[in-house]
Amino acid sequence: MSWPGPENYKFCPVCGGELVERLLKAGEPKRLVCIRCGFVFYIDPKLAVLSLVPYQGGLVMVRRSIEPGYGLWVVPGGFVDAGERVEDAVVRETQEEAGLVVRVVRLLKVHSYRHSRTVVLSYITEYLGGELVAGDEELEARVFGPAEIPWEEIAFSSTRDALKEYLELQGKV
User: Fold this and answer.
1) Is 140 a catalytic residue?
2) Alpha carbons 32 and 37: distance in angstroms, whole number
3) Are 49 and 55 in contact (CB under 8 A)?
4) What would be the CATH architecture of the domain defined by 6-41?
5) Of these residues, 21, 140, 148, 153, which one is catalytic?
6) pLDDT in tens, the chain (173 residues)
7) Paired residues of 100 in beta bridges
8) How far apart are the first and last CA of the chain?
9) What is the pTM of this model?
10) Domain ranges in the chain with CATH number 2.20.70.10
């Protein structure tokens, strides 16, 4: 799934006027500007989080039941809501997607890619409780040992990169 680019936005969210691309500052990309009220519509990135959960000798992964990536594997994660602390989003998404209660141990890495508007923060977490179960946007929840990770069936670059970083950190690659 690709995010809408400037060509997908036609009208100002403030006054309904027409949006046109204009260069506002040398060295920056063109911005969408309302010809009626002057509002500048910045197309900013979305923020998402990933939760690397060491559990029962492996790492927790879930198989998606939604697009993008239907049927493919990811670690628990998702978008951060406006006003939500990123650490709280990690805990929330892990419980929603895998039924597990975790606490954030530390930030592992920040992932950003030219092909995506999403900036992903991957976190190492610690299992505190709950039962491993697939959430309502997942087909399955499982624990994979380092040698069992289904690398060819991973949905997103950020999941693949976070898993590799984690395993390198643990000396398992």
Assistant:
1) yes
2) 12
3) no
4) Single Sheet (2.20)
5) 140
6) 455 666 789 999 999 999 999 999 999 989 999 999 999 999 889 999 999 999 999 999 999 999 999 999 999 999 999 999 999 999 999 999 999 999 999 999 999 998 888 999 999 999 999 999 999 999 999 999 999 999 999 999 999 999 999 999 998 76
7) 130
8) 30
9) 0.86
10) 6-41
